[in-house]
Amino acid sequence: MDNSRLCSWLLVVSSLALGSCAQAQNRTARYDLKMEDLKYTYGPFPPVLKVKAGDTIETNTVDADGHAVEAVGVKVRGPNPLTGPFYVEGAEPGDTLVVRFVSVDVDGKEGWGSLVAGFGGLNSSRYTPILGGGVPNKVWTYPIDKAKNVATFHAADSNFTVNIPLHPFLGCVGVAPADGEARSSIVPAEFGGNMDAPEASVGNTLYLPVNVPGALLFLGDGHAAMGDGEIDGTAIEVSMRVRVKVDLIKHKTIQWPRFENDNYIMAVGIYRPLDDAVRIAFTELIHWMHERNGLSELDAYELLSKTAEIHLDEMVDPNYVIVAKINKKFLPVAK
Amino acid sequence: MDNSRLCSWLLVVSSLALGSCAQAQNRTARYDLKMEDLKYTYGPFPPVLKVKAGDTIETNTVDADGHAVEAVGVKVRGPNPLTGPFYVEGAEPGDTLVVRFVSVDVDGKEGWGSLVAGFGGLNSSRYTPILGGGVPNKVWTYPIDKAKNVATFHAADSNFTVNIPLHPFLGCVGVAPADGEARSSIVPAEFGGNMDAPEASVGNTLYLPVNVPGALLFLGDGHAAMGDGEIDGTAIEVSMRVRVKVDLIKHKTIQWPRFENDNYIMAVGIYRPLDDAVRIAFTELIHWMHERNGLSELDAYELLSKTAEIHLDEMVDPNYVIVAKINKKFLPVAK
Amino acid sequence: MDNSRLCSWLLVVSSLALGSCAQAQNRTARYDLKMEDLKYTYGPFPPVLKVKAGDTIETNTVDADGHAVEAVGVKVRGPNPLTGPFYVEGAEPGDTLVVRFVSVDVDGKEGWGSLVAGFGGLNSSRYTPILGGGVPNKVWTYPIDKAKNVATFHAADSNFTVNIPLHPFLGCVGVAPADGEARSSIVPAEFGGNMDAPEASVGNTLYLPVNVPGALLFLGDGHAAMGDGEIDGTAIEVSMRVRVKVDLIKHKTIQWPRFENDNYIMAVGIYRPLDDAVRIAFTELIHWMHERNGLSELDAYELLSKTAEIHLDEMVDPNYVIVAKINKKFLPVAK
Amino acid sequence: MDNSRLCSWLLVVSSLALGSCAQAQNRTARYDLKMEDLKYTYGPFPPVLKVKAGDTIETNTVDADGHAVEAVGVKVRGPNPLTGPFYVEGAEPGDTLVVRFVSVDVDGKEGWGSLVAGFGGLNSSRYTPILGGGVPNKVWTYPIDKAKNVATFHAADSNFTVNIPLHPFLGCVGVAPADGEARSSIVPAEFGGNMDAPEASVGNTLYLPVNVPGALLFLGDGHAAMGDGEIDGTAIEVSMRVRVKVDLIKHKTIQWPRFENDNYIMAVGIYRPLDDAVRIAFTELIHWMHERNGLSELDAYELLSKTAEIHLDEMVDPNYVIVAKINKKFLPVAK
Fold it and tell me: Which chain C residues are Cβ-neighbours of D324 within 8 angstroms?
């Protein structure tokens, strides 16, 4: 890490007291997004910032269409412009990256939602093309009131308006893929990515497989609120200011993303059709319950059939995202 | 209705006060299940009881494997033995049957769950056969404590036990199908049936299309509690004592089942793959929001993308069941 | 009809007087369709004719929309009006019904094809509903020249015409379903039914599971020619004159329909999505190769991966139909 | 192109006669595979050879597991090692690359097939995981007799052997993907790739979208013969010697790969589930028939429903591959 980078550290109070960056244990590393540095794939780019395990990254992201990018005269090159990547020192293939969502705040006074031809769960779309199918392109704007913690929907075809409570989260949180792949920022897959998971919000921790040295974490696609399934293809799309604390579990390999909070363990399955996403999420959750809590796989299968919760995050992206979870109160004490 | 049937009416206090059955407005009609009269298809059987719109049916159901049937020496002829059918006077094709769940109580002191070869979301199954796939047949027994409102899971392969809160509901609630069909009691479809919907519980109302005169309502497959997806193919399977109030909406046609309660309208989509079940549920919900609340279809689509909730009821039966819903607080006043 | 045909008829009451029916060996039993007797479900109807194993049934069927029915002033009650059922004496659940297609001839001088809103592989449809999706209702008429063995397509929106070679087959060949079910004549499933299989044509033999006494065979939905997938929902739809020879394999149970001819064994998989139909067809074919030819299941799996042929019959009906087959020249001598 | 590259040109007689490379019209450019230069993704690598539109590339490929690679002591880094990329001068995004298969010959005396845990259409697999599912890892070796044009299957569990006619083709033919993506050599998608299409053989022409300057063509995964669906995950896997003639259609954009030969136009649909692959292939074919032959889209839809042929290439890779085609004899004269 060079000197100028060092200077970009935002030293937290406790570390300042110690009078030395080098001794800081829980530093906050800040990266202010440069629009020219936005990425449009999860892939092996040079990092915009290097951090250590235990550090908190403080940064900002732009909305899915990059309105904030165009506003400063930079050309947007695709959907979901990404902030990053962030290089986590010591991360090696075979490790697990831990991403704790410390704060996720809407950056701005309004969001937007839209219908776009060829994209959406009930439209004729790129991967489910239907003759004569189609909806018109259409945009809704949502004023956001942070004090009241709501965004406001204004119907286009009537006078109806209604407030929607904010639940800010990042639609895109992912690392560089395995096998030398680079994937579009529209794609969710084994490496996380455009999961459109409301679980990527304050209070939750995300685990991602490390596929390349440094992991290379990308963030983007802020959502002020979203319905299950993100059925027309958009949430309330916003720019964000976020802080995420990163950590490593060395020599721990996971096949698919996982979430955890105080009350739940949550396995993510990502594919098409939804049937397969459900199968992936549940077999992963069963493996996890077996490793973590010592239940046999058949006991875990049976217990989930009585207690599991399923969250359908989205059914509009190139892959679909299912979260299968179990409340920890139904589990033996973790090993 | 003959005299003996008349005597089976359980007259509620208010109707007694009026001194006359004929004048009673909200009668309770009781049918005590005869094991020989169990049905194994939703189809055009002679009714076990005729009721009027506005009546409450009080009856009992047996568990999915019919343990209670065998206990009295009657042969079980298949899964999900059904109580009924109940004939609702005045119901004609083109009407909608309204089923309000007044009480749904576990009838007995234990339930069961099981793994069965060829059935289950993560097994090799009849419709998703996998070479070499398979789990052993296995049964778990769940003691039920109604005072504490819990059932207890005992792990088969370790000493772990845990209590699971009861949420009693009917896995099977359906009417005779359209087009002269008769469907196995294992099947959920347009006529309802084996939806394994936790929504079929106290506080909720179910709407079903009327396909034949009298509607012919069937009930069965009681569940003391179930996880989302019913992933291994079983809930905590129990016999039940239930009361459901039936009503009619004349000349109102619906294509798929719907639920409603004080807070939500809920459209049910039932098919394979889950992708199609989601598409059915959401297009139905959009049509409903348009008819009921006056939103344009595109506004409804957009609003759902921000506020919808999805419940995956089951992914193990011959068809899969999705509930798409919206909180009424996000909707214009109903017309 | 020539004299030899006449002689092979099953002589009704008057023939009994001759005292020779019982000795007849390969009789032809004729049933001339009565429009009032058309059926619209595969189910437990009283038979229109009883035949013996080894008999040939000679009868006629009407087109999928029943134009021929309306022509004589009888009301059509749904799609795919069915001729039958034919009761095969001695057929019991657990047996296999053998249907050999002796002759399948177009009955008339033209056929039709159409687009119908809500039905079709590339339309918004009942089970894959798409917002704004849809094609207009539209009909094409196909003159049929039996001498030249062609039907002629006339484009609706240009002057283009082209001849299509005839390949006459029955879209509907099925028996009464298992488990007390009755299924619409639009449905293909374990009992056969609306398989829209070009394999149901002269030179091929179809095996169906017997689910009820007498099997109860139904025939209908003649096709003069059809493309793979029947992608818009219709073939060249015609009335037919057909002769099928029925036989029984006692105490032989099959789970799904099978076809066979001199060169191929063919297993049919019927469900949604197509992925599952493929899995069903191949696992059935592997079991068949194991039983019939003595190959181990793993050898059969590997050999199919090198030599199998797949025919996608249709992707428009409530279930989809896949035929997986292997040329007998690649198999050990049958046991 | 530097000098050493220039020397690798194999100048055909006619071009030599002209005395100048620059003037040659139909040159053959040869690249002898260097094992260290194998690629494992379709992505933006420096080219191994630059060619001109109209040139024929002569090269060789290794088998899917890289046995030929290990044989010379080079480490194999994944499945489907790829030869290339070949840079086609003048190719720009928005053009179409034309690949004509001039010769495709097995390079060696035997091939192999195998079962691998986690991969295969009837196995528990990465994207369709099944509890307890699984087949053992197992390899079959296929001696190849080019004189007789057959490979020989030897059963593992019996003495059965049978000859299988050769149909040599390339399982992998693809270009660098759009949107800055790089995809594993196991993946088929819009850019072609691991399509496992028997259509990639002598007599056929493949069209691929150009996504990056030079197109960057990759070749690999030779198959001596394959069954429809490649159901256990392998064909008869071999190294190959191939010649492909490349050309460009400037300013012609296609969304998905297409094949053509003297008799057929063929559109490729690639996704999951198969239902969506079929929808993609047919909508593309309808657009093609509209542009090429002037049929209206509804006439094309109807005509395909009567005459289309469908080929299920594979149902085992991360995406599934369907080819929908129509015989040119059923089409108006191409514009």
Answer: 229
User: In terms of C-beta density within 10 A (0-12 exposed, 13-18 middle, 19 or more buried), how is residue B109 classed?
Assistant: exposed
**What is the rounded average pLDDT of the residues B132-155?**
94
- Band (pLDDT 50/70/90 cuts) for residue B9 is very low
C28 phi-psi bin (left φ>0, alpha ψ -120 to 50, beta other): beta
Is C117 in CB contact (< 8 Å) with chain D? no
Q: Where in chain C is the domain with CATH 3.10.28.20?
A: 258-330
Percent pLDDT > 70 in chain D is 92
CB contact under 8 A, B180 and C40: yes
Topology (CATH) of A3-103+170-219: Jelly Rolls (2.60.120)
Closest to D130 (Cβ–Cβ): which among B123, B273, B275? Answer: B123
> In chain B, positions 233-292, which contact chain D (CB-CB < 8 Å)?
273, 275
Q: Which residue of C has its CA nearest to B44?
A: C182
Q: Do B264 and A114 touch, CB atoms closer than 8 A?
A: no
End-to-end CA distance of chain D: 38
Other beta carbons within 10 angstroms of residue C163's beta carbon come to: 16
Numbered ranges of CATH 2.60.120.580 in chain A: 3-103+170-219
pLDDT at C25: 65
Provide CATH 2.60.120.580 ranges for chain C. Answer: 32-257
Task: Compute the nearest-CA separation of D181 from chain A (Å).
Answer: 5
pLDDT band at A8 (very low <50, low <70, confident <90, very high): very low
* Interface touch D182/A184, C-beta < 8 Å: no
C324 touches chain D (CB under 8 A): yes
Q: Could you say which of C128, C179, C183 has the minimum Cβ distance to residue B181? A: C183
Q: What is the pLDDT, as a whole number, of residue C12?
A: 33
- Is residue D174 pLDDT above 90, yes or no? yes
Interface check for D133 against chain C (CB to CB < 8 A): the answer is: no
* Residues of each domain in chain B carrying CATH 2.60.120.580: 3-110+165-247
CATH of D30-110+165-249, one of 3.40.1080.10, 2.60.120.580, 3.40.50.790, 3.30.1050.10: 2.60.120.580
Phi and psi at C119, nearest 5°, equal -140, 130
What is the distance in angstroms between the Cα of B315 and the nearest Cα belonging to chain C?
13
Between A13 and A246, name the one with better pLDDT: A246
pLDDT(C210) > 60: yes
Q: Which residue of A has its CA nearest to C135?
A: A132
- Percent of chain B scored above 70 by pLDDT? 92
Collapsing DSSP states into helix, strand and coil, what is residue B237?
strand
pLDDT at B18 over 70: no
Number of Cβ pairs closer than 8 Å across B and C? 66
Rounded CA separation B207/D107 (Å):
66
Assigned CATH class of C32-257: mainly beta
Lowest mean pLDDT among C18-32, C120-134, C254-268: C18-32
- What is the predicted ipTM? 0.93
What's the average model confidence in pLDDT over C241-255?
98
Nearest Cα residue in chain D from C236: D306
Q: Fold for B3-110+165-247, please state it.
A: Jelly Rolls (2.60.120)
A132: pLDDT confidence band, cut at 50, 70 and 90?
confident
Q: Do D273 and A272 touch (CB under 8 A)?
A: yes
Q: Which residues of C46-80 are buried (b: 16+ CB within 10 A; e: fewer)?
A: ebbbebbbebbbbbbbbbbbbbbbeeeebebebbb
CATH classification of C258-330, choosing from 3.40.720.10, 3.10.450.10, 3.10.28.20, 3.40.50.300? 3.10.28.20
CB spacing of C157 vs D315 below 8 angstroms: no
Q: Which is more confidently placed, C10 or C68? A: C68
The pLDDT of residue D4 is above 80: no
Task: Give the amino acid at D156.
Answer: A
Distance CA B175, CA B244 (A): 14
Residue type, A323: V
Distance CA C206, CA C96 (A): 10
